[in-house]
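Homework help board

Subject: predicted structure for assignment chain

Our instructor gave us this sequence and asked us to write out the predicted structure in token form, then describe one feature. I got the tokens but I'm not sure how to describe them. Can anyone check?
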Amino acid sequence: MSQNNITTVVRTAPQQDLMNELNFFLKGVTKKELCNEIDLTKSALILLKCLPSTKIAVLEYLCSVFENAAKIYVQALETEINTGKAPLSSEDDELIVSDIHSVLSTLIADNPVAWAPLISSWSLELLGEISSKYSGRAHFSSNLNETLQLWMSCRGTRTLMDINTKCLSSLIHSNTEACISALLDTSVKHSPHFDWVVAHVGSCFPNTVITRVLSVGLKDFCQNKSYDQECNAPKLKSVVGILGHLAGSHVEDIRKAILDMFVWSLRETLQDTDIERLQKKATVPYILQLIYLSSTLLSSICIDIRNFLTVDVIVRLYYFVENWCKYFGTPEALEELVTSLILRCENNGIQLIKLMFQCILIDNIKTNEEIKNEIVDKTKDLLTIVLQEMEESVRHNNAVGLIQSLSKESTELVQMLLSTEKVISDTAAQIVVLLGHLYPSLLITIIQSLLKSSTTDNQLILLLKILTNDLIDKTALPYSEKGGHFSVVVEQILNRNIQKFCTSNEENLDLSQMWHNLLKLLRWEKSDKAPILKSRIITRSLEANLTNLTALLSNEVLHMHVIADILDTMEIPVLNASYNPPIAVVLNLTQSTVNYFFACCKDNGTASKLKGYKKVNNILKRLCLYSKVAKVLALRELLERALFRCDNILFGAKINEIDNDNEKMLLKQNKKISKTIPLTKHSTVFNGGIIGTGKRKSVTYDTLPSQTIAHNKIQLINAIKACCALPDEHKYTDMSWDSMTLLSLLLVQFVSPDVMYNGLPWPEEEFSKVTMERDLFIRRLFTNTPLLWDILSFVAVYRPAVCYCSVLIRALTATLINQWKSMGEQSKDDDSENYKNLMYTTIQLIDIMALGQLLPPPLSSIRDVLPYLKSFEIVAVLRECVWCYLRDHIPSPALFGCDSNGVHWRDPIIARPPDIYTNTLRIIMQRNIKSLGHMYAQMFINVPSHDS
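My token output:
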């Protein structure tokens, strides 16, 4: 029969004899007569339409129709699996299902209140029976999506789903609880095979299903009076299952529905019925049970818990705790449940921890003092239990979800560690220890932030307690190889800081507090007053990072003083110590310390730079005693930078302000004109000007205040002393003779431009004509770099090292003799600047010779005589007395004896020069006896002897 014929029959059914239809239907379903399935279905639909009292029997018959359709579908799938070919579907079966769908849809549309709940329950139960019956057959598996696709491809089950959807749609604005209750009941009965139905219904009406499912579940929850009943309530589990299916796509809707229910439970009104009051009191236990049974629901609730669960809300909930106990059996069971939920929280667990802190620090809330104290005490107990459970899980290598959650909150944990509230900082420290056991890299990150941000001793103590806790695995790789966890912390901070100087776009790191904290920790360790630091965790970490640390001393201008403090406090290197730094570290530290010295010279601070000089001397002394290579490097760097690089202006060097690149040499200009230029023997050209530009401009110098220069010179000499110092056990001499010799040789190497004639012997005075150009160069260096006089004087004090500077003294003497010659008949009374400078330079040179005992008495006292002599007389004294004596008595260390105290000196009585070297001086003084009489007697008459 065609569909049009069935529809015509249904329309005319009220005018026919319904009893005949009823009898036909009964005979057909009881198998008393063989009836065509299409005719029987037609009769059933007529009865359902015109005789509603038969609806139960008719719906029961329709179940067989749909079950048969499902059976045929499953068999077809299995046939296709086995043979690879799908059998042809029956058009009659398709027609029957289509007619049923049409009639049921009409009934639902015409009278939804009467038909929708009934048909919904029938269709859901039928779907549950079919799903359970054919589970495991064909392609049906535990995969929800695959099962849903397969059943929705079946015309029969798809029709049932559509009918059920129409039922819910028709009641969407009135009463859907009957349909939802049926959905829950069926889910309880046929789960998990029925899950695909729940997923489809929920996806069609997410908000309605979620809200109604929660509501129906709450009503059922309220009917359970014992803990055992509630815990095993099948409908509650069904609610959890349905919401779990929907959580994949509608987690926000679920979270909102649960929170709306929670907020609703807090609103008490006079219009509430007894049932509503009971439901509101049961809401929190109901929600707790839901999220206890589903991790998905728990995670959704924890996403934004701080916005709905506050201290004020907890104070309000306090009054309901007693009523909640009947749903959990005992208060202890409720506490255990809450603890379990907190420990299982895998998202935003930090919010729960903070909420507990707020409850413990509840002073700002206005409420009953007794209630307040009880909330505080209970929260403290809860926090203690949570921390104990967390530690227990970590020790058994089965970390709870809360730890996983807290591992994502390193920034929050650092802020908690820095809190002034002890309960907060101590709790954060315990959490960090647990995280450090599981995630060493996370521990490194947190300790870094704590080291950079700590401002109090308590915060640094927390840092040490974390690092030394027994849960922190000290043998974990790669931390054990790099000197421990704190060593890696220091390494990463230093690497980032070094990168700042290598990359222009690197963020500006403010590490001021970190450097001071590092220094404070090191001093605590060195004081031996902190038992927790007996393992030398700070020193070992710094030793492992000395390469980077020393490199930063050269670059970190803002923090150079505190970095130097750290290096000085470490007291490295030391001979025969447990730690011997590699040569690369020694050289790096040497270079950085020299750089730091010159940075101190440029520093504007007074107290900081004075302390800096002291640190420089301490470090250089240790370095140079430890390594000869470090000593050579330190002396070479100090001398070269102070004498010849841009730093020399700090020590009074005369820097020409004229741009040397633009200055033109006369010799080069002449060579451009002619390739062959007739010159004298020496090709030195004295240029009084530049052709085309006029007379040479006067030279101007950029100088610092004399007081600053004098101070810088003193500090440089002190630094050189530190490099040449002996160990402290030497009482009578503080300088190493080998070191002073090295300093002398370096000075000659830097100042003398030629390796020829650099030996100790003095040639004939006439030979100075050969070395005149080199001597002038040396003299010019001494003039433009006054520091050379100070260094030469320093060397002269620690004789006989000054002997190795013989070439410099010889060059200066030769230029002075020639310069005094050029003065002509100029008398000592001339007040010209040239005369004063020449006299001052001559006296300086004689002082150095006397100080180094190169000139014995009475020649050593020439400096007091010279100011009274005329130019030609000075020339005679320098030539006949000084030059000739040094020519015949070569300045050699062999002339000096060493006494029992290690001091080198020449006995002035034994070393007194023969008359041939003093006669000229005697005659000249006799000529000027009026002005030099008192000195004449002292130098030539009242001469001390061993006999006296």
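Reply (TA_rk): Your tokens look well-formed. For the description, you could write something like this. The radius of gyration is 52 Å. That's the kind of observation they're looking for.
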